[in-house]
Write a structure and sequence with these properties.
It contains five helices and two strands; from the N terminus they run αβαααβα. With about 90 residues, the chain is mainly α.
Length: about 90
């Protein structure tokens, strides 16, 4: 995956997905992390597209947060995982 092929907003969303994984002590960055990052992205198109499709972004945000809370957490002396990796699902998506 060549991250330079992505737009600035896409790279920003991936960075925010990683930050979210850190905050939640997740070692894997998965589709749900990216979706939540896209939903929360300032100036992003995702909420508007979802609204046009009849999906409430706020309700989806809550549902994705609940799914992320179910994922296993990894703790280290620093409090967060030291190494992160993209799941196969997210890698395939990208």
């Amino acid at each position: 995956m060549d991250i330079n092929r992505f737009t600035e907003k896409a790279r920003e969303a991936l960075q925010n997905a990683q930050k979210l994984a850190v905050r939640m002590s997740h070692q894997q960055i998965d589709d749900e992390h990216l979706l939540l990052a896209l939903l929360d992205q300032e100036g992003g198109l995702t909420p508007a597209v979802l609204k046009k499709a009849g999906v409430a972004p706020e309700a989806l945000t809550i549902r994705v947060q609940r799914e992320l809370e179910k994922l296993p957490r990894v703790s280290t002396p620093s409090g967060a995982p030291d190494n992160f990796y993209l799941t196969g699902r997210l890698n395939k998506l990208l």
